[in-house]
């Protein structure tokens, strides 16, 4: 069976499937309470870009992030971005986090937490290049350049 170049609408895209990848995460909203099959949860809704995917950049919109360590890292940025929907007045960009998705050290009797590992200088340049390319895109894709 051939592999399709698209994700099915029925597939849930979870951030943990991108272990080892470089992610640029834009937290959008902190959801205070949400019923899940595992009970109540308080995820962060975010857009993220896989910057080093097999087929280039992969943009994922409105993903719910449930791992607690990631929530803790992104929560304040989500609240900031909710209050400033047009981006940071100084930069024009929303607040974002760049890092490689990995696992931290497990505490006794617990599984290792999902974390964003610090990016290298090359990783940061890849993110800058991605953002520069986004800024160059016309707002109307049908507009003649």
Write a compact overview of the structure shown.
The protein has 145 residues and is an alpha+beta fold. The chain is 22% helix and 32% strand.
Low-confidence stretches: 3-11
Query: Counting H and I runs of at least 4 residues, what is the number of helices?
Result: 2
Shape: globular
**Can you write the helix and strand succession as a string?**
EEEEEHEEH
Notes on the protein architecture:
22% of the residues lie in helices and 32% in strands. Strand 2 and strand 3 form a beta hairpin. The chain has a five-stranded antiparallel β-sheet. A two-stranded antiparallel sheet has the order 2-3. The chain is built from two helices and seven strands. By secondary structure, it is of the alpha+beta class. The longest helix has 16 residues. The protein has one domain.
Defining traits:
5-stranded antiparallel β-sheet; 2 helices; 22% helix; globular
């Amino acid at each position: 069976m051939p592999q399709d170049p698209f994700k099915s609408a029925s597939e849930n895209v979870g951030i943990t499937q991108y272990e080892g990848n470089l992610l640029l995460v834009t937290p959008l909203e902190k959801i205070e309470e949400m019923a899940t099959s595992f009970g109540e949860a308080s995820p962060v809704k975010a857009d993220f870009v896989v910057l080093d995917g097999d087929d280039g950049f992969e943009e994922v919109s409105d993903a719910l992030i449930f791992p607690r360590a990631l929530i803790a890292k992104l929560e304040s940025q989500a609240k900031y971005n909710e209050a400033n929907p047009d981006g940071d007045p100084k930069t024009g960009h929303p607040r974002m986090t760049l890092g490689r998705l990995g696992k931290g050290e497990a505490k006794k009797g617990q599984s290792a937490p999902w974390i964003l590992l610090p990016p290298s200088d090359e990783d940061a340049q890849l993110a800058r290049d991605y953002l520069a390319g986004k800024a160059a895109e016309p707002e109307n894709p049908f507009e003649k350049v």
